[in-house]
Amino acid sequence: MYNHMVMKDTALNATFAALADPTRRAILARLASGEATVNQLAEPFDMSQPAISKHLKVLERAGLIVAGQDAQRRPRKLEAKPLAEAIDWIENYRKHWEAAFARLDEVLEELKVEKQSDKKDRKRKK
Predict the structure, then answer these.
(1) pTM, entire model
(2) Mean pLDDT across the stretch 7-34?
(3) Domain span holding position 106
(4) Residues 29 and 48 in one domain
(5) Measuring CA to CA, how many Å separate 88 from each of 83, 110, 113, 122?
(6) Count of CB atoms within 10 A of residue 89's CB?
(7) Which of 26, 32, 34, 41 has the maximal Cβ count within 10 Å?
(8) What are the residues whose beta carbons fall under 8 Å from the beta carbon of 16, sequence distance 6 or more?
């Protein structure tokens, strides 16, 4: 159980580390519309081919993209599973924060009612 959790945390860490860079996020956005070669992925960026290749390696190590089978072109394509795992992780915290904000809304509403009640009491005393 512990090893499984550590492995899952390692994969999640790699996913978030890969997503931390805007160039890699742009590459993933491009791959969301379909597979592309390294040259196609490099086209919109003002950086060298080796720099793009380094970004692709980070994405591949995180499991976010995979190389296609065409040996001539070696197209890359998006692998959705790590993104789904990151979404699941974030979703757990979203639920937590929504519940906390709902409780805060209740407290604020109670304070608002108390304040209105205090104002009415002060007016009656005058």
Answers:
(1) 0.72
(2) 93
(3) 80-126
(4) yes
(5) 9, 34, 38, 51
(6) 15
(7) 41
(8) 86
pLDDT digits (tens, 9 = 90+) for 54-111: 999 999 999 999 998 776 778 999 999 999 999 999 998 898 999 999 999 999 999 9
Q: How many CB atoms lie within 10 A of CB 27?
A: 26
Are 55 and 102 within one domain?
Answer: no
Indicate if 47 and 69 belong to the same structural domain: yes
19 closest CA partner among 90, 97, 91 = 90
47 and 97: one domain? no
Token readout for 48 is 């060298």
Q: Same domain, yes or no, for 3 and 63?
A: yes
Mark residue 63 as left, alpha or beta (left: phi above 0; alpha: psi -120 to 50; beta: remaining). Answer: left
Burial class (CB in 10 A: 0-12, 13-18, 19+), 82: buried
